[in-house]
Write a structure and sequence with these properties.
With 240 residues, the protein is α/β, with parallel strands linked by helices. The chain is built from nine helices and six strands, in the order H-H-H-E-H-H-E-H-H-E-H-E-E-H-E.
Length: 240
């Protein structure tokens, strides 16, 4: 699928000069944001929750876990994002995810790759990259799984195999109207390991586009660890 998309993108680039995805200013080939728009994206910097990367203001110099993580049993070891899903970042991800601007996956993948420089992931050995799956009905409706596209790009970048070892077996209602506890309940039993998939004793890097409450990542991690995964860390292109 990626090869087909890249051919389409190459053909389009011959017809249309590269332009900023936000303001349409001219940009260099291979770029998606102009310098002014790129300067507006918000990087997540310390202090932040060691478990979910929720940033906090103030002078906190010690490692800490936020109250939301402390009150829930989250099954991933840590969920890391480099950028806030605000303003330009949020707009880019929405265009990619819901408006079929699939070429923007390359920009989202850069943000995802930046998350790997976090000390919670840096230098860690991963055996497998696993994208968060969509329900088949939702994937048919959208035409692609954004997390799978990002996982494939990351796999090519860091030379670690990406495999869709999880499948979504229950079509859940939208999560936006639920609080954290309701999201966890809504997702329980929504995923399972695919037949013949084996993650025993593997260090897994779980990939999604956006980390919101962590409920989806946690449920996926629970399934992977129940199947024998040694560890499950998560990385996303952005954090809500």
């Amino acid at each position: 699928m990626l090869a087909k998309l890249d051919l389409i993108g190459a053909a389009a680039s011959l017809l249309y000069p590269p332009a900023c995805a936000i303001c349409s200013a001219d940009v260099a080939a291979g770029e998606y944001l102009c310098g002014d728009c790129d300067a507006k994206i918000v990087r997540i910097v310390p202090p932040f929750c060691a478990k979910c990367s929720e940033p906090f203001s103030g002078a906190i110099s010690t490692v800490f876990t936020c109250a939301n993580c402390g009150q829930r049993a989250l099954d991933f070891d840590a969920a890391v994002a480099a950028y806030r899903s605000r303003g330009i970042v949020r707009r880019v991800l929405l265009e990619f995810k819901y408006h079929k601007q699939i070429h923007l996956r390359h920009l989202a993948a850069r943000w995802l790759f930046a998350a790997l420089d976090d000390e919670r992931l840096r230098g860690r050995t991963f055996d497998l990259i696993v994208p968060v799956p969509l329900h088949p009905a939702r994937e048919r409706e959208r035409g692609f799984n954004q997390s799978a596209l990002l996982a494939e790009l990351l796999s090519a970048k860091i030379s670690i195999k990406s495999m869709p070892v999880l499948e979504r077996i229950r079509y859940t209602t939208t999560q936006t109207a639920f609080d954290r506890a309701e999201r966890m309940k809504n997702l329980h039993g929504a995923f399972r390991l695919r037949k013949n998939a084996d993650v025993r004793d593997l260090g897994v890097l779980l990939i999604d586009d956006v980390l919101t409450t962590g409920s989806t990542l946690s449920e996926c991690a629970r399934v992977l660890k129940k199947a024998g995964a040694r560890s499950v860390h998560a990385a996303t292109a952005a954090r809500a």
